[in-house]
Amino acid sequence: MAVPSAHEFHWQSLARLPSGRVYHTLSEVGGQMYMLGGCDAAGRPCPSVELYSPEEDRWICLPSMPTPRAGAAVAVLGKQIIVVGGVGEDQRPLKVVEMYNTEEGRWRRRSALREALMGVSITVKDVDGRALAVGGMGADLLPRNILQQYDLRKDVWALLPPMPTPRYDANTHLFDSKLYVAGGRQCKRPVKAFEMYDIETRAWTTLPMLSCKRSYGGAIWDSAGKLCLLGGLRQGGGHQSSKFTKNVNIFDCNQGIWLKSDDTVSLKKKRADFVATFLRGRMVVAGGLGHEPSALDTVEAFHPLKKKWEQLSSMTFPRCSASFIVIRDRLLVVGGVNQIVGGAAAEKPRLPVPIWYIQLL
């Protein structure tokens, strides 16, 4: 497929959200987008579920989740959407697991996690109905090293060998029967740990660590097995404060090494808490936080042949903490925050400022 030029990308404002929201989760089933839970403008987890149809450009309210939650882990198993953990109305982790049948339009309670967890990372193992859930943070605010496998047919969670490093909010990816777990956090501090679980041998391998401790960066996996870590907040040492970075680091799973800095190209702009994905053969980053006192609207894309980042048209509205998903070569960016509430721009906003629209790239 030919790599599109920067001029071929454009933004389109779409139907507004039924309500402003942040920390919600997006899923795609049959070309339709499902938006689940999240926090409202007052910071309260909600049970709302909406369906967005790209063809009709409209939102449809669906039956609410039985349990209000934000920041849940979500996996699509066939026509089912399974919702795992997250934060509940009391601002504590949840162990409740619920499943939505997109054909029947109804919710069912499923077997709960062994303990309440937030920040779980979940990856679909196979389309027949199994998923892998990694790590999380318990009610005691301590990270977990747990690895669990969920079987949809049996409705059972099985414990697998624990990963070497406890963590939550890790980036996970399944490639060639191996589960890669990169980064994450321990007690709000980023970790450099990078580990791989071999599904066939049921053994963990420690990989070369991430180059630095960073949080709120972008993580993109390509189909060839390369992990691209972009931007973020780089943690300072000692009494130094965290700083925004535009660094790009790439790990090649086939070679088992991080590429040399000469083989990578930094972003044009330092940013954190932004949208990052592959779109039509190009890495695309949009919005986020920078050194400015407000959220960013700038967008850039990497051209693999020219080996450089190119500026794309800006988003109509600046935002960070947005959810996003790619459906049929279109990037949907949903909700988020467009103001920094109290404190420096380098800190994650606590309360969502609603953005009531969706944009398309």
Main pleated sheet? 4 strands, antiparallel
**Helix proportion range:** under 10%
Strand order of the largest sheet: 1-33-32-31
Q: Provide the gyration radius in Å.
A: 19 Å
Q: Return the structural class.
A: mainly beta
Note the beta-strand portion: 35-45%
Distance between the termini: 18 Å
What is the correct CATH architecture of the domain at 65-215?
6 Propeller
CATH superfamily of the domain at 65-215: Kelch-type beta propeller
User: How many E strands?
Assistant: 33
Q: How many helices?
A: 0
Task: Tell me the name of the CATH class of the domain at 65-215.
Answer: Mainly Beta
Tell the overall outline. Answer: globular
The pLDDT mean sits at: 90
Low-pLDDT regions: 342-361
What does this structure look like?
By secondary structure, the protein is mainly beta. It has a domain at 65-215: Neuraminidase (6 Propeller). The protein is 0% helix and 39% strand. The chain is built from no helices and 33 strands. It has a 4-stranded antiparallel β-sheet, with no helix packed on it. Strands 2-3-4-5 form a 4-stranded antiparallel β-sheet, with no helix packed on it. A hairpin with a 2-residue loop joins strand 27 (275-279) and strand 28. The protein is globular and about 50 Å long.
